[in-house]
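Slide 14.
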Amino acid sequence: MQTQRKLPRLRKTNFSQLEENILQTEVEKNYAVIKEKHSTSTTNLEKTEYGITSPTKLMLLVLPTGLRRRKGNNSGFPTGTVPYNRQRKTVKPSKSDTTQTVYKRLTRKMTSLVQNIPYKDTDTQCVNDTKPAVLLRPRDTAPKIPKTKKSAKKNQRSEDSSNRTVNVRLNAIMWNSVFREHQRLHPNCNGFLQWNMEREEKFGFVNREEAMCDKCNYQSRKFKLYEEVQTKKPGRKAAKINVSAQAALSQTPLGYTGLRKIVLGCNMPAPSASGLQKRANKVLPEIININKEDMKARRKQLIEINTLRGRKDPGSVSLQADGAYNNAIYSGIGKTPFQPATQVVYSVAEAETEDKSIIGVVCKNKLCSIHPIKSGENIGDEYTWAKEALQDLASDGIEAKHLTTDPDSSAYRAADDLYLENTTSTEPEHFLDTRHFLNNHRKNIKNNKELGEIMPGRTKKRP
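Slide 15: predicted structure.
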């Protein structure tokens, strides 16, 4: 037996046709106020005046008394009701339709450049009021581009056009040995012999090379194309050119970065910065010891010269002393409360011979973490540097009889204090450097305003 399906109960309409027409007319009339959000043009007071703070109040205002909905009927419009905006041809666009938020994820450097604005100019805003991009959490670094691995043949061709530093004699020995060995092992081969760049070994500016044939499977042994420093220590010997490069760098204002740029610009493989620093840590102490031994030899020679001259006290000599800074001390006047100089070299030269050789040096560096300047010491304290240099000279029997310094230097007081402390037995006599003395005298003349009244003169061209 087939059961009959229960028909759905028909609902009564909430509004009649007359009520719908009235609602549609009033809503179309006040549509701008209804849809507009609270702003400076549409306030809450204006909406309250029209009675449209809620849809229920809107219907109570629009509908006549007899056409209002019954109390307790909270249902919406019935199915099939024509919406009031179906006949509208244009719809007012909202701000979200034209301005879309842009999200970007940048690197840390790029994020810092975008967020940190040196100054903000309100006149440079965009005409369309485009919203700024929303920056997401930055990534650590830029995306890495995968490097394509070169084949042995491509690497061989690219290295063939580069340059190398070789010893001429050792290079001739290598190729003579390679030609003979290749002819002996492969007498019928007429291939081209060249360096095997895949098996090259680099040590700073030098390298070890082996030869190979492009037709047969011949490979020679490795040859050192550089001379080594002969020492009694075990292990690999250092190349002479690497040691000589560090000695030259110590006498030039050129760093490792500048040296690498020059070498790479010559299409040569440059030594690594860590390798240069490692070699410098071994070479520079030797340079210091050589300079100290050289100055000691010059001091003994100076005493010998005065002895041959018949001096009663050959150790009492005439000295000249002055300090040199990486930045002039007076260059920071009016610019910085700190001293601009960070390095000083205080030199003491003899004035007994025509060579004027330097026999004492004191170096100080504020940037050095291994040998820093002691607390309380000043980089421009020439009294302390001169006292240290004179004490070193006194240990080899050299004392200051005549000391020439700047007019504004306190080095003479250091020599006088050493005499009063009985460290030296010769009482020093102070002399002023004529060059600095003339410069100071010229400055005093320029700054003296009374001279203009004594000797008036024209300072401008007459019309």
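Speaker note: Confidence is low (pLDDT under 50) at residues 65-70.
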